[in-house]
From TrEMBL:
Matches recorded under Gene3D superfamilies: P-loop containing nucleotide triphosphate hydrolases
Protein name stated in the entry: DNA helicase
InterPro entries per record: DNA_helicase_UvrD/REP, P-loop_NTPase
Source species, domain of life: Bacteria
Classification of source organism: Bacteria, Bacillati, Actinomycetota, Actinomycetes, Kitasatosporales
Organism: Streptomyces desertarenae
Amino acid sequence: MIAANTPVLHPDLTPAQRDCLDALPLTGNHVVDGPPGSGKSLLAAHRAVHLSLTGHPTLLLSRSNLLRQLLHGTLQGLTVPGAPVEVATVHGWVLRHFGRDAPRTEDGWFDWTALTHRAAAALGTDGEKDADGAATPHLVVDEGQDLPPGFYRLARLAAASVTVFADECQRLTETNSTLAEITAALGRAATRTGITGNHRNTREIAALAEHFRTGGLRPVPPTRSGPLPVIRHYSGERDIADDIAAMAARNPQHRIGVIVSSLRTAAGLMRRLERAGLAYEPRLYSSAAPSGRYRDIDLARPGIVLVHRASAKGLDFDTVVIPDTETDTAADPTSASLRTAYYVMITRAREQLVLGWQGSRLPRHLEGLQERVQTR
């Protein structure tokens, strides 16, 4: 997917974001870390545009296809004629660079060691071309904490430069990396810098997210205020759908993200919401769909989007509803994986947040939050 329009560099960036971007050299490997809402995805898009002006092909990569779509939208109006930026998933880039026969491991993911050996063997021979004959690209990676160190060892050999935007407090995949591991894999000369601030959440949403954060320095709190997050008991699927439809009716221009733990739940809610007579047709994203209405989503459009937790990384919505928190009742409420999942989901919300549950008892991981939420 290529974005190529009239350049508008640095629109709406804060001084700190501009300073971070301008301090990055156009050569070498770099890691930029920042908390949710600090603008990493926006900076990744700007960084890709800057690198494209060097004359090398430039790719903006993500692990998630839904985030790829969001990044493509962000690039609209930023890219420069004659210096386009391509947006792709890591999966798509590997297949294009090494061909459809790229070796894989038993779990279906790529064999990063074998690919690194192949890239090393190509250096000095055909090392400046990929499988399609394209020149060695600059790579910019968003949400880089969800990729393994082996990917970065490969990228170091296969790219002209690598710039990674990441937050290790948002590691959700099983094949992830810490910031130290990313930096080490990119080589001794790789630099590491940070961006602070939270320009997405309200103070109230950020305070609830802080309860679930698993490590790192405490982020700078947002300055913007809003309503307290809500913990709401639902009697069933119909009650959930009616509540979401009412939110959409009250705020017809809001983007409402419904983040669920299973696509079965999403499908059931989708059927009910489609019959609710909403101003905008609800949408459901499925990573398993090859194309079409369940694969290609306009995330900038108002209305309801139902998405699985695994695809929520990097997204943001005016309102976020997590309707099925009871599905985590059996999990250890202190476990890092559970806390990280909720940290990521909660920080998707710009204005309003609802944590829903069904059953006779409040899920354990939502206990003790009285000062941070209101209950209904």
